[in-house]
From TrEMBL:
It is found in: Membrane. Keywords: Membrane, Transmembrane, Transmembrane helix, Transport. It comes from Flagellimonas taeanensis. Its main location: membrane. This is Multidrug resistance protein. One of its GO terms (biological process) is xenobiotic detoxification by transmembrane export across the plasma membrane. It comes from the Bacteria.
Length: 403
């Protein structure tokens, strides 16, 4: 039964629909920004805080884990209590956490704030992914969901590029001050032009929630898509975790170059998304299988060629091709999953984000920890491990007739 507070919350005004949509698109990249902007600063953080590579890499993994876990609960809570107020609170917490990180001189507070950031950004991510399902319908919804994935891909492009220069001209703290400033602007825009978008509040009842989760878990195409999306983004995280160390420590280049390398990887991810959108009407499963097989071929060539051709250019070329492939697969499968259950957009969006990024954080950190890539060959082996896991899903578990 819906209680009185639901009717008192500010609803999205019809005249502000376009502005609120634009604001949502501006918020979608937040998760990528907070993940990637300080990637070129990881070696400097390790040095200044007198910590190991693994210790500072854990700041990224902790964020991804909390970001993943909170989404399991955020979706059902927002379907019952709304998205608008939770988004505003999350933005405030995110702003404050960035300031605390920038002022910290040890990893303890940074770990705590990265967990808090994961919670805040997880709530914002669920709310804004659900926004497009709440507000738009039919072909427009399908269009916006595909665009959403591409917009989300912008963050990995601009974030490390900006972060590399911030590290070069200032220090690692500058990235977090920039994040706080950007989130502050978004907070005031959200306050002025957005509002509640839940079309019908769902009862916050255990049986109803378990029933919704059961529906999703009994849909194989959806479930495999969530796993596949997590592994695809985990491939990107492998470069975020190890790329700066390879470029700066292994090859001797400055942080700006590491930022440019990450920028190129972001362009590859975005290109894969655009290719995915352009081929949206092609048979679903076959095109994903082809992209995966080509990706495996590239990673094998990346490993074998390291004995005769290994430098910054070869590293970037092979990694670029790998990122295009996983970007293509992710764009197609993630958009499919987001739009699969429109009547329970919040809980399904939370399940998708939570599951996918839990898989992302565990798989990427585990592979980097096991392989410890320090050169082109090591990075290629890490990529190959992810590609083989994706192949198992696409070739042996997903059935084309279920697409």
């Amino acid at each position: 039964m819906v209680t009185k507070p639901y009717t008192e919350v500010k609803r999205l005004h019809a005249d502000h629909k376009k502005k609120a949509t634009l604001i949502s698109f501006l918020m979608i990249p937040l998760s990528g920004l907070v993940t990637d902007i300080y990637a070129p600063s990881l070696p400097t953080m390790a040095s200044e805080l007198q910590q190991s590579e693994g210790a500072v890499q854990l700041t990224l993994t902790l964020f991804l884990l909390s970001y993943a876990v909170v989404q399991f609960f955020a979706g059902s809570i927002m379907d019952s209590y709304g998205r608008y107020r939770i988004t505003l609170i999350s933005l405030v917490l995110f702003i404050l956490s960035n300031v605390v990180i920038a002022m910290s001189t040890s990893l303890g507070p940074i770990y705590a704030m990265r967990i808090l950031q994961g919670i805040a950004i997880g709530c914002i991510g669920v709310a804004k992914r659900s926004f497009f399902v709440d507000v738009h319908e039919g072909d427009k919804r399908k269009h916006y969901l595909s665009i959403m994935s591409i917009v989300w891909s912008i963050a990995p492009i601009v974030a490390p590029f900006i972060g590399g220069y911030l590290q070069h001209y200032f220090n690692w703290q500058a990235s977090f001050y920039v994040l706080a400033g950007y989130a502050s602007v978004l907070f005031f825009l959200e306050l002025l032009y957005s509002g509640e978008t839940v079309p019908e509040f769902r009862p916050f009842k255990r049986k109803a929630i378990l029933k919704d989760y059961g529906t999703m878990l009994r849909t194989p195409m959806f479930l495999y898509g969530v796993i596949c999306s997590g592994l695809c983004y985990g491939t990107i995280m492998i470069f975020n975790l190890s790329g700066a160390f390879i470029v700066e420590h292994g090859m001797g280049f400055p942080p700006v170059v590491a930022g440019y390398a990450s920028l190129i990887m972001g362009i590859a991810w975005l290109l894969g998304g655009f290719i995915g959108k352009s081929l949206i009407d092609r048979p679903f499963v076959p095109k994903l299988r082809i992209a995966n097989i080509l990706g495996i071929a590239v990673t094998i060539l990346m490993i074998l060629s390291a004995t005769v051709w290994e430098n910054l250019y070869s590293l970037i070329l092979f990694a670029f091709l790998v990122h295009v492939g996983v970007g293509f697969i992710f764009n197609n499968y993630f958009a499919y999953c987001i739009g699969r259950f429109p009547k329970m957009a919040g809980i399904s969006g939370g399940f998708i984000g939570g599951s996918a990024f839990f898989i992302t954080s565990i798989s990427s950190y585990a592979i980097v920890g096991l392989v410890h890539p320090q050169d082109q060959s090591g990075l290629g082996i890490s990529y190959l491990a992810m590609a083989m896991l994706i192949m198992v899903i696409l070739l042996f578990l997903v059935r084309p007739e279920k697409a």
